[in-house]
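Appendix B. One record, verbatim.
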Amino acid sequence: MIVKGGNQTPLFYFTRILELISDVRKCYVEGSTEQYNDGQLSEMMLLDSCFLIYYMNIGLQNPLHSLLIYNHLGSLVLSLVNRDIFLMKNQLPFQILMLLINLRYDNGEESVSRFLHQSTWGQYKHEQIQDTKEQQKRSPPLHLFKALRSQIWTEEKEEIDLKKYHKTFRSEKEEIDLKKYHKTFRSAKNLKAK
């Protein structure tokens, strides 16, 4: 949990969410949160946010920790986690995520921007993270998926220099064989039939 190792108790974070619970309810379809009282919904927001913040920060403080998680869970599980984080039904209000990460860490906005940039482009550079932070301040997203979408699709009419986001894995003259980079798993019956 993100609260472990911090200066505050879990009750502190829970109370801060509880103060904003009416705003949280407005982020969901009307009636979809009625089955939860304010305390239950606040606890759900806290637990989901803690997991998400932990996942975003894997390796930021200690790269060895990232390697251990990767070895323990494997690339398939981590890719499924990454996919599930951005499913619409799993979204939690971006306001809550930013509240908690900024209360717990000094570089909360940078962590979120870095995570979004890595999830979108597979890499990050400091100036690109600054662009992401500025974009989120100009137009705060409702949830993480909207923030990810804004990484790819900007509503501004300005020209974007895609070269600064592009990472080249090969030279221009070389043909690329995607089979070298992506492993696929198929049924043994299909393989024998070929």
